[in-house]
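hiii, so i know i said id send this last week but things got crazy w the move. better late than never?? heres the sequnce for the chain we talked about at the cafe, plus the structure i predicted for it. fair warning i was half asleep when i ran it
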Amino acid sequence: MTEPNAQNADLTALKIDRSRKADAPRRWTKWLHLLWLLLPVVFYFAYQLTIQKVAPAVKVKVGTVQMITGSDAATQLVATGYVVAQVKAAVSSKATGRLRVLNVEEGDSIKSGGILAELENDDMKADLAMAKANLKKAQADSLEAALNLARQEKLMQSGHTTQEVLDGARAASQRAEAEIAAAIAGVQSAEVALESTIIRAPFNGTVLNKQADVGEMVAPFGSAASAKGAVVMMADMTSLEVEADVSESNINKVIIGQPCQIVLDAYPQAVFNGHVKKIVPTADRARATVLTKIAFDGIDSRVLPEMSARVNFMPMSQAGTEAVTPVKVFPKSALTMRNSKQVVFAVDNGLAREVAVQVGRQLGDLTELISGPEVGVQVILSPAGGLKSGDKVEITN
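okay and structure toks below
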């Protein structure tokens, strides 16, 4: 009786569970639906990453958010120019000859009348010596003629000579005096010719550069072929001023005596005080500018001719005073509009990032930044109208 029960139990265990087979397709269908939902998202992010890597970077120029001093913020007008010596000369020779002696080098200071150089002048010295000898001979002849005239006058008084002989002695004496005058003029002419071979400093100044070397031919104004016209260039360093071009539209902001602050490109941290010395009474038609001359209140040894400089024209009310509160600024050309808001585009790891800003005063080419990027952040100058956050950018000089 027990065997059939065991067989029946085994057969029951071998039955197929159809409910389990029906559950499996349902799970696979759920995963498949989920995959179809995720694929567009995956493709979208993959596309964005591909575009960012493959798309060429937009080449841009950048400026930097920075802090400026209160005096710079109070500036009414900013102009650029160069340091120029008002007393400057290319010193040349009056005579033509070979340069024998050059007594100075670049940077040497020399007093007015000091000898800068000397040409070969042995022939001039010989001519001077001959002129002096002719003068002595003329003086001797004059003495002889004067003695003969005195002797003839005494003889005439005693009746031992004739009037004709006396007149001849008087004429000979006058000729001798004229020969002395001619000899003196000859000496002076020889001295001038000799002096023409000696090149002297026309004023107290500093040698800026040499334009001829020993052994070279020197001629007045370079009139001879292959000859140098000037030996040295020198300038009076106490006459240094800044010549700056001011736009015609802003020249009404400049007046004589107006205080200025001068910043040299070579020493950006140093500020030199000055004032407007002269406004040249003519305009440059091509550039629409007026030349202004700004004098230094105190000459510094660091100031050299032809240095480039920036001039801050200060308000007359601030003469002798200086604002001390620093101001955060950025280049004016970086400001643009997006969705009726003022924004700038900062450069962040090679990508453009839009930043909303609140601005204040216009300070020349700079704009006061009340809120926005921090100091040191690079901002894109003149951003294109289609530029947006996330665009790849490449900084160019």
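btw The chain is about 30% helix and 35% strand. thought thatd interest u
miss u guys!!
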